[in-house]
Amino acid sequence: MGQKGNTPFSFQEKAWKKYSNGYSGMVVAPTGFGKTFSIFLAVLIDFMNNPSRYQKGLKLLWITPLRSLAKDLARAMQEAIDEIGLDWVVEVRNGDTDIKIKQRQSRQMPDVLLVTPESLHLLLAQKGRQRFFNALQCVAVDEWHELLGTKRGVMVELALGFLKHQHQNIRIWGITATIGNLDEAMEVLIPTTQKKIKIVAREKKKIAIIPVFPTEVEVLPWAGHLGGKLAEEVVPIILESKSTLVFTNTRSQSEMWYQLLLEAHPDFAGQIALHHSSIDSHIRQWIEEALSEGRLKAVVATSSLDLGVDFKPVDTVVQVGSSKGVARFMQRAGRSGHSPHELSKIYFVPTHSLELIEVAALKEAVKTQTIENRDPMVLTFDVLVQFLVTIALGGGFQANDLYPVIKNTFAFQEITEEEWDWCIFFITQGGAIGKNYEEFHKVTLNEDGMLVVEKRRIAMLHRMNMGVIVSDAMMRVKFLSGGYIGMVEEYFISRLHSGDKFVLAGRVLELIRVKEMTAYVRSSSGRAFTPSWLGGRLPLSSNLSQFLRQKLARARHPDSREKELQFLHPLVARQSEHSHIPAEDEFLVESIHTKEGYHLFMYPFEGRLVHEVMASLIAYRISLLIPISFSMAMNDYGFELFSDSEIALDESQLKKILRREHLMEDVISSINATEMAKRKFRDIAVISGMVVQNLHGKQQNNKSLQASSGIIFQVLEEHDPQNLLLRQAYTEVFNQQLEEPRLVAAFERIHHSKIIYKFATGFTPLSFPIKVDSLRQSLSSEDLTSRIQRLQQSNWKSPRKKR
């Protein structure tokens, strides 16, 4: 039904039945199996069976994390409705929706409305919001796994809690791909309803992971450049497929790959496109439509920031470099293969030889269905105070009535009455330091005992700044002659001089001048910088790092079926000969002396973000034993401490610096936690409305945001240390940036491992990519290549010294 005569899957039929019996729930199924229809058709079937239950107005509210997803979905839903012969209307409402359509919707809602979390909050901020939801029967939350564990997920929880309180009979349904903690995911979405069910599809998407092997194994691998060499191998894959998605992890990598593919096969001009979140939305829309209609052979896209835009299914998916997580990899793979039972093919292009170990690790994870958890966020007071102003704006609330509603959400089940009173005090008085500042007195108590927003300016600023995605200040990039190309982060442009060239949206542009928050450019050609966006650093998931350690240990004696490990044999042999390949219960430390100085390498395989913290901690602990200073470098596999004076450590000292005792105290001493919290506080200050990001359509630049939030941070530290938003900044640093639980687990594992301490006189295959990463920060790409080649040659000649 609605699927062109196909028989429904059993999970769809189960969802339809449970829905009609008044259940809320969550549907779990792989990409491409019609998860959308399991809920959407449930509402239509229920309406046809019980039309008297339904009134005129909005019946189904569909929340999606993606604007680009909404358009395609709305079209598919409207087609199904028209086929059935109902007179329902499906519409979209988000930041791209025309103002006239929004005004019409406010007068008369469609039957089905697709919104983002932000658009839903804007509806709740409208006067007389009740009228929008009087006929509402169901709220569906699409791609719940993408929202869970983020502040946008908390926005959804708060909105659902409020709607459920107002309209008790609303059914709430989540739609999700597989994640590790499904029961918790349902608990977060539907905390209060008694009648709820989790429906998991029995069908599994078959995935073929095909590694793209280089012509020869590089014994001293380095990140990034191998991918470039392999562009030649990707060309035939694209030519043999009708449509291909090439996924990269970062926007800068996507810009680079777009150029590489054009250089490798100039005939791709006009046949391939580039898609990431910093490209103008009109261009992105055109690309999505062109790919759907088969006018493009391939699109190079990021998915960390675009959440993998839900294009129509494509034939082939290519993944460039590590996907950093099992769930993300499976989702990207699921975008290929037109029909549910078709094989999903994903080609893995390593950016350096060692990444082939990751192919073996991913195959193992997919086989054993080991998928990451998404941990929900709790007690995010910045999101809560923003929401309270939203509710005060749309008609007001009474503090005593709203408290139990908030406490019923998963995110705020632990909130105390004192914390609640503080939130009310904050929105009415601005907290302890806001008393003397009018702009912090946003909400007032009227004579009916309702907390409302009365000032027009506050209402307007609140609507303009609603949401929880605080990006680094973005600069618009425009041609001098007019015409908008996209956005780059302010910090990137601030490093360029007039006349410098950079790449954006696949074009080489020359910077002419910067005025306010706009960079004016002209078209150019030749060598150019690729922008790096700060949002691009994905952490390696703990599941994947566990499989990586396992596969590396097995690489000494690879199984004949594991072609990746067999291919890497020369690299593994060299690592064993010059140092050691750690077994699963071993922890490798390498001390390497070269012409440049002394290097200490450690390999926890916990991902770059965790290694950043570990490197600072180990450097701090060594400095307590020996007066020495270090520079640091890290990648996903390990980290380096480098010094020009000898790092003379014996085995007992090494054990001491790797101890698990006093871990977090030493971490706090080793990093500037206050400085990190101050940076975190910038986002919290913007979300909570203490600092205004958008003023009358103009975005404040980074410096002024950082400055204003920095001043508030210092004042709070001094005069209001118990401030909940200040406390939250430190909590976020510990849980997100320092990944406290994961650090503790890593040191626990090291404690139970045998420490292998090796000395070498040249770089080993494991240490070389980390060394290159440290050079990359200080050298241009041409200097980098020649410097690396010199290093590789000198390294071959270096004599071995045994200790």
Automatic annotation (TrEMBL):
Superkingdom, taxonomy of origin: Bacteria
Which intervals hold domain Helicase ATP-binding?
A: 16-197
The family database entries (PROSITE patterns) matched by this protein are listed as: HELICASE_ATP_BIND_1, HELICASE_CTER
Keywords attached to this entry: ATP-binding, DNA damage, DNA repair, DNA-binding, Helicase, Hydrolase, Isomerase, Ligase, Nucleotide-binding
NCBIfam families in alphabetical order: DEXH_lig_assoc
Q: So what family is this one in? A: Belongs to the Lhr helicase family. Lhr-Core subfamily.
User: Where does the Helicase C-terminal domain start and stop, copy by copy?
Assistant: 233-385
The yes or no answer to whether the keyword DNA-binding is present is yes
Q: Please give the CDD domains that the UniProt record associates with this protein.
A: SF2_C_LHR
Q: Which Gene3D superfamilies match?
A: P-loop containing nucleotide triphosphate hydrolases
Full protein name: Ligase-associated DNA damage response DEXH box helicase
Give the molecular function GO annotations. ligase activity
In terms of InterPro entries, this protein maps to: ATP-dep_Helicase (IPR052511), DEAD/DEAH_box_helicase_dom (IPR011545), DEXH_lig_assoc (IPR026362), Helicase_ATP-bd (IPR014001), Helicase_C-like (IPR001650), Lhr-like (IPR017170), Lhr-like_DEAD/DEAH_assoc (IPR013701), Lhr_WH_dom (IPR045628)
The record's Pfam families line, in alphabetical order, gives:
DEAD (PF00270), DEAD_assoc (PF08494), Helicase_C (PF00271), WHD_Lhr (PF19306)
